[in-house]
């Protein structure tokens, strides 16, 4: 009987397609074990407001931001890392998972990340939306834990590490100690807020109205720029005149525009450090701070943390994919990481 149970278990495990999902405010990434990243798309959906049909999802939806017909609305179904529009999120996930090859998705085991500060209701919403999209078994993992694994932190080393994951909607701060998080904090200040800062700065200081897409492109082009005097051309609508206009802006101006929210992130890191045990603080003095996520390459952030907190800052390799790479490692060694995986059978 024991052999039969073992045989059944292993057959069912082999028939599963293990899938990792980084369901982010800005981007959604889907990884299939043994096949790598299969989907890496913006978390945007274009809806026909007349028929309520989905017109575009992902990159195609993001491309038409600011250039939509009257009957089209661009929706971002996640806000601050959590689902704000359940039905649209389900349709988006169904579309993304429909791109996976081979077996039908409804045989899959899925691990999906959630911000560390989500409520039980929000956790349940994530599980249900992925199940409704066709998944069989759904597990959760806290985003900063996945990011820590993804940047190469050894969870099982008896030493404290500090990970700061800067996404689109939230910044996740967590201390990883002896197999899991000792303390974690989810801060609703991240990449989207920096985009807003850029829009406001150019509006106030340059009298030019630009769109969200232009602001994000400008941020991406300037955040890791070593030459503060390098200029970038931007186009928008001149306020007061109402006509299209083009102008050039220096990288240093963008740094100044995002400085306020950069300071807020650093303040949150400082507050979190003040709450940890002295032994962990001693470890952090040695190991420093690891940065991951789309905001990890912000040169200003790295420099300011090192200057103000007097700690070494390490930007993880492939920082933007740290979370999905971390979940991929969990899929490879599912039993080893059982203490950081949140089971679907628990009460949320």
Automatic annotation (TrEMBL):
SUPFAM superfamilies: Actin-like ATPase domain. The keyword Nucleotide-binding applies. It holds the Pfam family MreB_Mbl. Keywords: ATP-binding, Cell shape, Cytoplasm, Nucleotide-binding. One of its GO terms (molecular function) is ATP binding. It is found in: Cytoplasm. ATP binds at residues 25-27, 168-170, 216-219. GO terms for biological process: cell morphogenesis; regulation of cell shape. GO terms for cellular component: cytoplasm. Belongs to the FtsA/MreB family. Forms polymers. Forms membrane-associated dynamic filaments that are essential for cell shape determination. Acts by regulating cell wall synthesis and cell elongation, and thus cell shape. A feedback loop between cell geometry and MreB localization may maintain elongated cell shape by targeting cell wall growth to regions of negative cell wall curvature. This is Cell shape-determining protein MreB. It comes from Leptotrichia rugosa. The gene is mreB.
